[in-house]
């Protein structure tokens, strides 16, 4: 008999998952951070070239005029509209969807914990992320390492003073599986070296590690600032644990005009690589123009966290039912 209908997670895993969600809610309740629930569907979608959204058509009964909607890749845009409306610090446990993602630590549908803090600097937010993981998962305090220092330590290269060809040469030296003639832009090589060379090294540190002060070209929706050496860097961090990227945090960009400029650049690049342009979220831009408060924010993958807690081989084992 075909057993494809059976749960992909054991009963013990489902219980541990339920406890994890309860612990998350208790952590934020004790800090008076409000839980919110925002729509999964939107008429806009992220423009980031590395993200591919699921889309569906809504056809009102009797009208026949369809409207394209997108499943959220993150609740970020809608949560920022709440922040602009005066919600104060908020969090959400959300189902999110990313087309094309499949593998040991990827799934087209997964559960994300995302929260925004009006009271905390980016440095303080890193501290809160570390405390959350200690509280709900028993992790040791996280270490901190700048992006520059990580590349210097593990690849002996200065990311602010090296060429695209330098990075390409490093990749072919350290990643044996690369095909001859493989090409990427500068940020592509940086991201490949981070995921294929540096991330596995971070796993050997046996505690979570924050990587912060990414190159300004990787700011995404974060502010850009000058670091201690005068380099333009993105005010953001990523958290790695067990060799897995677990969280991504920003000192959130507040300038609507700058965000629109970045969205348009993204769509320009999407055209160049033969990807579909994505509709820009005008409601988000309007909310920012009305006054998005100073805030920091972070998204954390709960399925990946549970995978680490259970020492599971893949996040599919942590999810109730396979697709």
Protein architecture, described:
- The protein is α+β, with helices and mostly antiparallel strands and 323 residues long.
- It has a single domain (11-142, 207-318), classed as BirA Bifunctional Protein, domain 2 (2-Layer Sandwich).
- Helix content is 37%, strand content 21%.
- It has 9 helices and 12 strands.
- The chain has helices at residues 11-30, 76-84, 122-137, 147-155, 164-174, 186-203, 256-272, 282-291, 302-310, and strands at 34-35, 41-42, 55-58, 67-71, 90-97, 109-117, 143-146, 209-215, 224-226, 232-241, 244-251, 296-301.
- The strands form 2 sheets. Strands 1, 5, 6, 7, 8, 9, 10, 11 and 12 form a 9-stranded mixed sheet that branches.
- α2 packs parallel to α8 (282-291).
Q: Average pLDDT, to the nearest integer?
A: 94
What's the total number of strands?
12
Q: Which stretches of 5+ consecutive residues score pLDDT under 50? A: none
SSE run: HEEEEHEEHEHHHEEEEHHEH
Task: Report the sheet-strand fraction.
Answer: 15-25%
Instruction: Characterize the overall form.
Output: globular
Report the structural category. alpha+beta
The largest pleated sheet is described as: 9 strands, mixed
CATH topology heading: BirA Bifunctional Protein, domain 2
Number of helices: 9
- First-last Cα distance: 18 Å
Number of domains: 1
CA radius of gyration is 20 Å
In the CATH hierarchy, the architecture is 2-Layer Sandwich
Query: Which CATH top level class fits?
Result: Alpha Beta
CATH superfamily: Bira Bifunctional Protein, Domain 2
Q: Helix proportion of residues, in percent?
A: 25-40%
């Amino acid at each position: 008999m075909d057993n494809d209908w059976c749960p992909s997670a054991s009963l013990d895993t489902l219980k541990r998952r339920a406890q994890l969600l309860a612990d998350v809610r208790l952590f934020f309740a004790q800090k008076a951070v409000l839980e919110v629930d925002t729509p999964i569907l939107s008429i806009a979608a992220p423009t980031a070239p590395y993200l591919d959204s699921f889309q569906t058509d809504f056809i009102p009964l009797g009208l026949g005029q369809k409207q394209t909607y997108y499943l959220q890749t993150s609740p970020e845009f809608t949560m920022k509209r709440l922040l602009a409306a005066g919600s104060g610090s908020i969090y959400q446990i959300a189902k999110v969807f990313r087309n094309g993602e499949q593998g040991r630590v990827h799934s087209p549908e997964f559960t994300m914990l995302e929260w925004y803090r009006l009271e905390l600097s980016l440095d303080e937010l890193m501290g809160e992320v570390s405390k959350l993981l200690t509280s709900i998962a028993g992790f040791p305090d996280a270490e901190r390492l700048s992006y520059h220092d990580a590349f210097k330590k593990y690849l002996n290269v200065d990311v602010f003073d090296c060429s695209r060809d330098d990075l390409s040469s490093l990749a072919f030296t350290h990643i044996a599986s690369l095909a001859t003639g493989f090409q990427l832009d500068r940020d592509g090589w940086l991201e490949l070296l981070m995921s294929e060379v540096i991330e596995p090294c971070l796993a050997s540190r046996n505690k979570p590690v924050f990587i912060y002060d990414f190159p300004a070209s990787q700011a995404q929706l974060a502010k850009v600032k000058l670091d201690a050496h005068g380099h333009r860097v993105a005010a953001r961090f990523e958290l790695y644990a067990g060799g897995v990227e677990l969280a991504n945090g920003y000192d959130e960009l507040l300038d609507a005009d700058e965000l629109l400029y970045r969205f348009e650049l993204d769509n320009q690049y999407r055209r160049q690589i033969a990807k579909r342009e994505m509709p820009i979220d005008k409601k988000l831009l309007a909310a920012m123009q009305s006054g998005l408060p100073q805030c920091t924010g972070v998204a954390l993958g709960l399925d990946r966290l549970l995978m680490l807690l259970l020492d599971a081989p893949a996040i599919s084992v942590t999810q109730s039912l396979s697709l």
